[in-house]
Write a structure and sequence with these properties.
about 500 residues; alpha/beta; Rossmann fold; five-stranded parallel β-sheet; 14 strands; about 50% helix; globular
């Protein structure tokens, strides 16, 4: 689909991304849904990503087959796409579409952020009802945002209290803010709270996901373009900096911004000047920049994928959003919050004492987004009921439930078999010799070890990430994140 075709999509119908490598399924489902939805089709994860980059506004819904090329009989490629969509389009509702109904796979897809599951072959009435239900939930969330008071970010844990304190402290500062945290922790919510509690609150808040555009398109979207600046530029258009005016420009997934654009962004932050693509007249930017990432930007700087000078400018005021597993007590408060948000759309339920204990112990690898989706599914499946531990377990990722948060291994003692016999952990004297040489880099060494173990585990598991994660003693979400980082993505 060309950018021009994407721009001409109907504004009267909600958009839906359908990704399936079976042409018969794509054709039949799209034919079924086209009277009510603007359907965008893709066969692979890469094709879906390319298609979404052409759209100015991503569709609110997605139907994703878990078995995608190049391994259509394995769910890992589908898992990877769900994770990418959640990282790049956090408000999108993803429904997993698969003929493989293994409970562990479905529950892992939910942990990654999938909102629901539809079994193939699809029942037309059931599919349409499921999609309509997701749209109703999005409407309920929009109403909740409009009605939200200024009480701040939810949670009474020490970690969230620290975040609220930082938001209050940084709100009116003139400098950029860098928000770091795992996917699903609510980084955009923190950015919005920074804006809403600042003197710029009556000005625009413009969110931009840097991973959702190609390099050329992102440049034009950020800075605007002149008429004829490139193919398809039939008229001049202002960019996001101009749209934000004296408000806030939120750059999500800043770690995905190409290096050349990083230099242009740095110039805007330092001088306040920028040029539309195809123009030579400078323009002035007055917006405050807030950036967010789920990557380690220090690691990206060391790998020469992110400019050090830009990192220092963005990181003057850092905020670390904690994962839900580090927010003791907040999971129950969030359960009550989402039940209130979806009141009238999702029936309420209660947790038995045993289920409540599991709820508080579960690490929620998908963070707040995963918790929200579990609340929705439980309310839909157990309306008005007291949910048992067994019922709750069926909604949770079994790998996260059984493994929890990976623990840090203890260092071997001097003289132990592990210390003296391991090629990965050398004996103390060898360490001293290595350090005396003066060319040792601990980060590089640890990355080599991590890559060795992840590559070996994947080889032993024949590329199956579920088995590789079990070999490594981590959950599958953690392993996927490590693989993407080590590949330099």
């Amino acid at each position: 689909m060309s950018e021009q075709q994407a721009a001409s999509a109907s504004m009267n119908q909600p958009g839906l991304l359908l990704v399936d490598d079976d042409p018969l399924i794509r054709d039949s489902i799209s034919y079924m849904l086209r009277p009510d939805y603007e359907v965008y089709l893709a066969e692979t994860r890469a094709e879906a990503s390319d298609l979404l980059r052409q759209l100015r506004h991503p569709p609110p819904l997605a139907l994703i087959d878990l078995g995608l090329p190049p391994y259509p009989h394995d769910p890992d490629e589908g898992f990877a796409l769900v994770a990418e969509l959640m990282a790049q389009h956090s408000q999108m509702r993803v429904l997993a579409l698969s003929g493989q109904d293994e409970p562990a796979n479905l529950r892992h897809a939910f942990a990654l952020g999938a909102a629901d599951f539809v079994c193939k072959p699809c029942d037309p009435g059931l599919l349409k009802a499921r999609l309509q239900h997701q749209l109703m939930l999005l409407d309920a969330e929009a109403d909740a945002v409009e009605a939200r008071d200024a009480s701040g970010l939810l949670g009474n844990s020490a970690a969230m209290t620290a975040v609220r304190d930082q938001v209050e402290q940084f709100a009116d500062a003139p400098f950029p803010v860098l928000i770091e945290g795992e996917s699903g922790t609510g980084k955009e919510l923190v950015a919005r709270r920074l804006h809403e509690t600042s003197a710029r609150a009556h000005r625009p808040f413009v969110p931009v996901n840097c991973a959702a555009f190609t390099e050329t398109l992102l440049e034009a979207q950020l800075f605007g373009h002149a008429r004829g600046a490139f193919t398809g530029a039939q008229s001049a258009r202002p960019g996001f900096f101009e749209e934000a005016g004296e408000g806030t420009l939120f750059l999500d997934e800043i770690g995905e911004m190409p290096l050349e654009l990083q230099s242009r962004l740095l110039r805007v932050i330092e001088s306040g000047e920028f040029y539309r693509v195809g123009e030579t007249r400078p323009r002035h930017a007055a917006a405050r920049v807030i950036a967010a990432t789920n990557k380690s930007l220090t690691a990206e700087v060391e790998a020469a994928r992110f400019r050090q000078d830009l990192y220092y400018r963005l990181g003057i005021l850092p905020i670390e959003v904690p994962p839900l597993r580090e927010r003791a007590g907040d999971a129950l408060a969030l359960l009550e919050h989402f039940q209130s948000v979806y009141q009238g759309t999702v029936p309420p339920f209660t947790l038995s004492p045993e289920a409540q204990a599991l709820w508080e112990q579960y690490p929620f690898p998908g963070n707040v987004r995963e918790l929200r989706n579990v609340v929705i599914r439980l309310g839909t499946r157990c309306p008005g009921a007291t949910v048992t531990r067994e019922q709750l377990e069926r909604e949770l990722d079994p790998l996260a439930t059984t493994e929890g948060t990976p623990t840090v291994p203890q260092a071997p003692t001097q003289g132990s078999t592990e210390a003296s016999g391991s090629a990965i952990i050398p004996p103390p004297e060898a360490v001293r010799e290595r350090l005396r040489a003066g060319d040792f880099d601990l980060d590089d060494y640890l990355e080599e070890v991590e890559k060795l173990f992840t590559d070996t585990a994947q080889e032993m598991a024949d590329g199956n990430q579920s088995r590789a994660a079990r070999l490594l003693g981590v959950n599958r979400t953690t392993l996927y994140g490590k693989i993407q980082r080590l590949r330099g993505r």
